[in-house]
Amino acid sequence: MKYTVEITPEKMVKKFIDDNGKEYINTWIAKGPGHIGTLEKAMDDQMDDANKFSEELLQAIYDEDLGDIWREVRNSRIKEGLHGNIDN
Fold first, then answer.
1. Fewest beta carbons within 10 Å, which of 14, 38, 55, 66?
2. What is the CA radius of gyration of the chain?
3. Where are the domains of the chain?
4. pTM (whole model) above 0.85
């Protein structure tokens, strides 16, 4: 899994890629002075629709808590037996 955030003066792009390579993208754009909008539905809603992510990960993404997102991504790898135990 991978979560990236790209920020430029014109836009902010948040991208989550699951272990199967599926991308969940949320693009925020400047629509004028003081106005912003998104091009896609909320990322946590996209992931919730896929119905394969933990509630903790969805909540961390909704709250944009990068530490929590990283911990939940690491924890999901542990559950799959891909890495040793990782402390919080």
1. 55
2. 14
3. 2-79
4. no
Token pair for 85: 């135990």
- CB 23, CB 17: distance < 8 Å: yes
Find residue 25's DSSP bridge partners: 15
Count CB neighbours of 32 within 10 A.
7
If residue 23 lies in a helix (H) or strand (E), which one and from where to where?
A: strand 23-32
d(CA 11, CA 39): 11
pLDDT in tens, 55-69: 888 888 878 777 787
